[in-house]
Amino acid sequence: KYETGMNRVSASRLWDIAGALSVPIEFFFEGLEAGAKPEDATLPGDILGDKEALELVRSYYAIPENQRRRLFELARVLSDAA
Fold first, then answer.
1. Residue of 50, 7, 13, 48 whose CA lies nearest to 28
2. Could you point out which of 32, 43, 48, 66 has its C-alpha 20 to 30 Å from the C-alpha of 6?
3. How far apart, in Å, are the Cα atoms of 27 and each of 1, 10, 35, 40, 67?
């Protein structure tokens, strides 16, 4: 299904594939430099060292993909409004 393009690879599955192949996630994105950071990097350097942030990420990926996508869009709208 993935090879023919009938199904897209979810972000969490892409993360798993990168881990299994021991390559950085940037490997799968054409033109994206390894370790490239967005110009507006407002996150703390050790975001996944924060227990609350790690719990949030784990909870996020436990949500079914279609609901996760909607939650992501809601979070994006709310962060733009802040």
1. 13
2. 32
3. 21, 15, 11, 22, 27
SS (H, E, C) the chain: CCCCCCCCCCHHHHHHHHHHHCCCHHHHCCCCCCCCCCCCCCCCCCHHHCHHHHHHHHHHHHCCHHHHHHHHHHHHHHHHHC
Q: What is the pLDDT of residues 25-39, one digit of tens each?
A: 788 777 766 665 655
d(CA 77, CA 66): 17
Please name the residue that has the structure tokens 């994105």: 29
Is-contact 28 19, C-beta < 8 A?
Answer: no
Instruction: Decide if 41 contacts 48 (C-beta within 8 A).
Output: no
Tokens of 20: 């299994």
pLDDT score at 27: 82
